[in-house]
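Dear U.,

For the methods section draft, I wanted the exact inputs and outputs in one place so we can describe them consistently. I've listed the two proteins in the order they'll appear in the manuscript figures. Please don't edit the C-alpha cell lines directly; just add comments below if something needs changing.

First protein:
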Amino acid sequence: MTTAREIMTRDATCVGENETVADAARKMAQLDVGSLPICGEDDRLKGMVTDRDIVTQVIAKGRDPKTVRAGDLGQGKPVTIGADDDAGEILSTMASHKVRRLPVIDGHQLIGIVAVADVARALPDRPVGDLIDAISL
C-alpha cells in the first residue's frame, strides 16, 4: 500500500519556534502555503502554525505579530505520521484529529508534509470522501 514517504511533499520549510508570527506569515506568503511546521532549536518538531491560527490567536486578539513567537502557537504534542505508515493510517490519523495536513517524521526528523490532496491523488475516491466528511464536521 502507498506510504507517507511516497506521497508527501518533501523538504518542508519550518518556521523556528523563536521566530515571530510575522516571520511565519511572510514565509507562508512566499511559499504560497497555509501552514508551516514549527521547529525547535533542537531541530525537533514543536507543532504547526496555520494562517487561521495567526488570524484567530494573534490578529483577532489584538496581539502584535511582530512580537508573538511562532512557538507560542504550537500547543501540545504535534500530530504526526511516520514516513512508512500507509495511506490507511494517514486517513485514520487525519480523521481522528480533524486535520488536513500531517508532518511526516522519520525517527525524530521532519522529512515532509502529507496533505489531503496528496492522499486524494494516491487513493480511490471513497476513502478520501470519508476523510473529508470526518474533518469537515
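Second protein (the one for the lower panel):
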Amino acid sequence: MQWTSALAIYLLFWFFSVFVVLPFGMRTTHEAGGEHVPGQADSAPHEFDARRLLLRTTAVATVAFGLYYLNYVNGWITPANVNLFLRERADLS
C-alpha cells in the first residue's frame, strides 16, 4: 500500500470517528446546571472542548486504522470470507 493511500484511508477513518466520538461526554446546559440563553437549542452543549474532541477522535481513528492495516497485511478477513447473499461460496482460488 502506498503511503498516500494509507493517508487517505486514515483520514476517512478520522472523519468517521468524529461523528462516533462527538456525542460522548457532552452535557447540555440543563444537565450542567447553567442558565439557558434565549435562542439556544435545548440540546446544545454547555461547553465545547475542541482539544478533547480532537484527541479522542485521533485515538479512535488510530486504533481503527491500525486494525484495518493489520487485516490488510495479514489477510484475516477477505472478500471470500464475506458471504452477504447466503449463497454457496464460489471457489475464488
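Candidate sentences for the figure legend, describing the second protein: Residues 3-81 form one domain. The two ends are 22 Å apart (CA to CA).

Thanks,
Y.
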